[in-house]
Amino acid sequence: MFRIRKLWLILTFTVLGLLAHATISSFAFKYEGIHWDDSDLPVTWELNQNGTADCAGEFQAVRSAYQTWENVAGSYFSETYLGTTSLTGPAYDYHNVVSWGHTEDSVATCYSWYYSATGRLVEFDIVFEDDYTWSSTGEAGKYDIQNIATHEFGHTLNLGDLYGSGDTEKTMYGYAASGETKKRTLHQDDIDGICYIYPKPENQPPDTPSVPTGPDSGTPNTSYTFT
After folding, report:
1. Helix, strand, coil share (%) of the chain residues, nearest 5
2. Which of 103, 118, 147, 167 could make a disulfide contact with 183, Cβ separation 3.0–4.6 Å?
3. What pLDDT does 32 receive?
4. 72-99 confidence digits (pLDDT tens)
5. How far lies 225's CA from each of 9, 18, 37, 110, 123, in Å?
6. Please, are residues 45 and 96 in contact by the beta-carbon 8 Å criterion?
7. Taking a C-beta distance cutoff of 8 angstroms, is the pair 98, 107 a contact?
8. Which domains does the chain possess?
């Protein structure tokens, strides 16, 4: 089982630095405080035309993953797939791109750029590690594309990784195993998360997320600040 990584690339004019954010308890969902502006919806995105050589059906698997989040009834979040592109990530180039490449030490990584002063999210790229073997059908010994993509797209909504003992069945649980498909289907806490960040008027959230019992044994997320 391998960790799925998330990097925040902050658009700001501060000195280059490294910020580590620790947590002391496990939330039902973890909201990082960044969001898409309503004027930026629907979020448009593209898939690199090369996909993966490991299997067929990778493009539809990725598209289905984002549609899972868009289809949550209590949320107004929306996305639009623009088709394939020759672009790859990660790169701040005004394009939200999903591609296969190299992520160093994770199955997949979501890179996000936002303005620290306003919390406005402006771009993301998702990279699947090409050194792993991928499947679109949940084959044993291979990483399921839709499973991993659903988790990574959760990061594009600004939902964070969870590592508590009570989080293992959630889409936003920060570890994934080969052959796993359970992240394809959102847990109620995942649904509550997107509805908290992007609520329809009739589903306005409470003041704070609910906090279940139990310690958080996970590694804190890390934010990289660039000039």
Report:
1. 20, 30, 50
2. 147
3. 81
4. 999 999 999 999 999 999 999 999 999 9
5. 6, 6, 21, 16, 15
6. yes
7. no
8. 2-226 (3.40.390.10)
Residues 176-195 have pLDDT tens digits of: 999 999 999 999 999 999 99
Angle CA 186–192–194, to nearest 5: 80
Confidence of residue 203 (pLDDT cuts 50, 70, 90): low
Report DSSP letters for 50-119, one per residue.
T--TT-S-HHHHHHHHHHHHHT-TTB---EEEEEEES--SS--SS--EEEEE--SSSSEEEEEEEETTTT
Are 154 and 184 in contact, with CB atoms under 8 Å apart?
no
> CA-to-CA distance for 69 and 78, rounded, in angstroms?
8
